[in-house]
Amino acid sequence: MYKQLSLLIIFICSIGYSQTHKLIPIRDKDNNWGYADTAGNVIIEPKYSDVLFFSEGLGRVFSNVFGFIDESGNNVIPMNYEEASDFSEGYAAVKKYKGKYGLIDKPGNTVIDFIYDELRPVREGVTQGKRDGLMYLITTGGKEISQGYEFLAESYEGMVITYQKGLYGAINSKGEEVIPPMYLGLDNFANGYSWARRNDEMWGLIDKSGKTIIDFVYNFTKRDFLLYPDNHNNYYKTDNQAGTVKVSTIEGKFLFQVKADKVEWIRDDFFRYYDATSKMLGIVDIKGKIITPAKYSRIEKSKGSEFIVKSDNYFGLVDVTGAEVVPLINNEAWALNAGVFFSKDNIKISAQNEVGNYYWKEVPGYYQYSHKLKKIIDINNKFSNATDFGKGATLTPPGYSYIRHDSKAFTVINSEGKEFYKKPFELVYYKDSKTCKYGFANSYDYNEIIIEAIYDSTGYADEDMAAVKKDGKYGFVNVALVKEVIPPIYDAVTFFREGLCAVMKGKKWGYIDKNGTVKIDFEFDEAKIFVNGYAEARIGTDLYEVRPTGQKSRTGSTYGEIDPNAVPDFNGVKNLSESFTVYYYAYISDMYGVGNKKGTKSTDMDYDEPLIIEVSKSRVTIEGRTFTVYGSGYVNGNWEMYKFEMNNNNTTYTGIAFYPGRNRAMLFTSHGGYIIYATNSFTL
Q: What is the rounded distance in angstroms from the CA atom of residue 360 to the CA atom of residue 68?
């Protein structure tokens, strides 16, 4: 499957929302990020691994760790954080390196201590944090004002939906439980009301006190009897009688009536109505004035004041007076932040059929209608794709959209049609269906082959480096530089992180940079990727933290490749007292082939559902089966070990050991002080 390594993908992972945007993220040829103004002038030189749109006057930047800069490029909050949110209402949720989450203000002061496993951005004056498996509503001063819940939704209109033991309720912004967990479903509050679902699967409308406003008599598919718009708009009630629809407020105040079979709210004070005889849609306003007759098969809102309409399979645009400001001559229409993008002509791109082979198909090219300038902008129909950045609730700021410009570059366009940044093409891999070999093509024009299909396999690029395999050996293609930069000479590779990649030559692992230069010698029996300035590696049974300079420090040993003659050393600590619960989805590799004949390969077990392990000072419970703990302590310096299920005069026991932070574990059996069976360490 193709992967376009484009500006879009990078922005999808990193763009935050802000009301005003004087500076726009840009990237240079070396993949460094900085900022330019909307005229394209570089304001902050590209020097970061990633940047985001400014939020509340501060830009979140990343180079191994997160920090914040002002609009002059000054580092106002040091880059000390493993994770960080944008600033919201004057605060940002941040995570310390290998630590927990806390809340900081704009000067960088800690206002909520770093004690939470999760922490959300501030919304409506409060935040939400998770610790010990439960979520709490917290003030910006760090006070927990609610009891713990299994889940909390974001705050809307001072109300937070709660979830506890399979049921939904709500608390207010003071943490007071105003609606106990009693519903199977509960929507976010909008204009004071929320849809609720009882245990009989029927829906009704309640207010913030939990009072029933509309009886629980509607199933989900018939809830459109009540028009419930986006948050912070009014609810409307419709009454259908003999081809006439009456529309009133939820409180019962009559607004208008129209000859139609159905009325639906679109936005603001406008509704679309459906005529069953013609099977067409029209637009009516809140006073009952017909804006357009029922002559369209589709009516949708745009990001401006216009409406996208469709008739006879063609799209156009009408304004609030009903005038067709863009004629219905277009194949497609998209409502984006920078305007509405239409297509009349088609261009050729690659697509994949059911059996995985690629073929050419025609897709639209786009031109822009600016909802700001109220006119069509002539961009010569050069664009082959158009979209807004976004991930979940994080959207592109008003007035900016991303488009693919002919076959040569991506660009960002504003609501006046100005293209202020372009990014030249990269490579994307393709598979030759005849030879089953892989090659690379222009990511914006798949018809342009750059590297012929000569590789046995390849994959997605990380940090612009795509691993390729040829004749049993591995190398790398740099998709940004558009060429093979490291020939296939390695027996195994991982992937690039922080400019380095672990590669194996013979039976030893080392690290190379993007030019193929060996930066850390081949001395390891196992090596992992770099994360936050270090990588984990192993020599024999010794574990190390390795720095990019090659400096390494021993951190302990691993039972993944443990010496069967090693005797566990509890280092004087006989009883660990903390209680905790861990879950894992993992492969457990039986390194000694238990259950297999001697000399056969080990057994792998894959769990689709997480195994649950509960640990306390005296008991270990695995999937409901409880064992008595006969001893616990630290082994190899930092692993937490619990031994249980003693037998044979206490000479044989089963045990479990947890890596520091409990993100890895291993199971083992010991006899006479020696390990006779162990799993490779599995990830929790």
A: 45
